[in-house]
Amino acid sequence: MTIDYKSPENKEIWGLYSLVFWLAVSVFVVVQAMLFYSVVRFRRKAGQGLPKQVHGNNRLEIGWTIVPALLLVLVAVPTVRTIINQASPPPVDSTRVKIIGHQFWWEVRYPDPTDPTNRDKDLVTANEIHIPVGKTAEFELTSHDVQHAFWVPLLGGKMDVYPNRTNYIKYTPIEPGQYFGQCAELCGTAHGFMKMYVFVQPQTDYETWFAAQKGQAAPVAAGATTAQQIDAGQKLVTGGACVTCHYIDGTSAKGRIGPNLTHFGSRTTFSSAWAQNNEANLKIWIHNPADIKPGVTTLANQQIPATGELYSRMPAFPLYTDEELTAIARYLLSLK
Ligand code: CUA
Q: By C-alpha distance, which of 323, 335, 143, 311 is closest to 247?
């Protein structure tokens, strides 16, 4: 059985899994064969009385103690080695990405290369993670609210994401591409929709992306979008309720509860990679998010008991007109 693994971490885990699987298959086959042999060979035959009664057999007992013990050693040694390898510190030149789980989306932060400890200088985005190919990426995982789990199946293992604790996982992708990820811990009503994408890019493409994501976006009228629409959309977004939760660099939107929208138009998806990022979906989402992601608005504006912070969930805005929704969507999409 082969798998199209995309990182050495994934290959190692798959190797261990295969070993355990085939060992288990061998044990099953041997035990079933012996059972079948015994059933046939020692079945009751006509004219026979009770068979010879035996009590204890040292050779057999030593055998069925030692063989399983050896099998366990055969599983334990590579298991421990895999755990140590997977948990070992990444190379010093690895890409560091901070991931914060929220109900129900992923906050993604890249420390500033020149000032990595200054949180205010982080590049902040959501749900779509970019990393360079051929280089280890280390993910530093925490949660804003409840327990989530970070998992990109083709790139490697999964790791729990807890509040008040930092876990780490590393992937070393060997092939550029768009990799699907999913929250792997039941975290509430919209858990099943809590997806993400990892974009593995050649180093120069990654650097271009990184540079473009730094700083402000300059909305430009293009296609069907007019300058008036961008202007109207910007006024509705930065002069309305959106600023409570969302941050858009260079505007009055300074909220930190929901996803940072500074370069929102450059993302291919939104709503934790569940919806394609286009005008039609955005209008539905802002009007009533539950039409796109059922369960997402539950508990909006309620506090997390442990910290008093707000749950970061998108409320519905049923009062915007169709024209206003179009302007908001077109403004957000112009933030490249
Ligand atoms: Cu987050 Cu499931």
A: 335
Q: What is the pTM of this model?
A: 0.88
CA of 82 to the centre of ligand 1 (A): 26
Atom of ligand 1 nearest to the CA of 185: 2
Nearest alpha carbon, ligand 1 atom 1: 148
CA–centroid distance, 83 to ligand 1, in Å, is 24
Nearest to 282 by CA among 324, 312, 226: 324
What atom in ligand 1 is closest to the CA of residue 188? Answer: 2
From the CA of 17, how far away is ligand 1's center (Å)?
A: 25
Q: What is the pLDDT along the chain (336 residues), one digit of tens a residue?
A: 566 789 999 999 999 999 999 999 999 999 999 999 999 998 888 888 888 888 889 999 999 999 999 999 999 999 999 999 999 999 999 999 999 999 899 999 999 989 989 988 999 999 999 999 999 999 999 999 899 999 999 999 999 999 999 999 999 999 999 999 999 999 988 999 999 999 999 999 999 999 999 888 888 888 888 899 999 999 999 998 899 999 999 999 999 889 999 999 999 999 999 999 999 999 999 999 989 998 887 665 667 777 777 666 788 898 999 999 999 999 999 998
Token pair of 119 as six digits: 């949180």
Three-point CA angle 238, 316, 242, nearest 5°: 15
- Report residues whose beta carbon is within 6 angstroms of any ligand 1 atom: 101, 104, 148, 183, 185-187, 191, 194
CA of 317 to the centre of ligand 1 (A): 25
Alpha-carbon dihedral angle through residues 69, 75, 81, 87, given to the nearest 10 degrees: -120
Tokens standing for residue 22: 């085939």
* Distance from residue 107's CA to the centre of ligand 1 (Å): 13
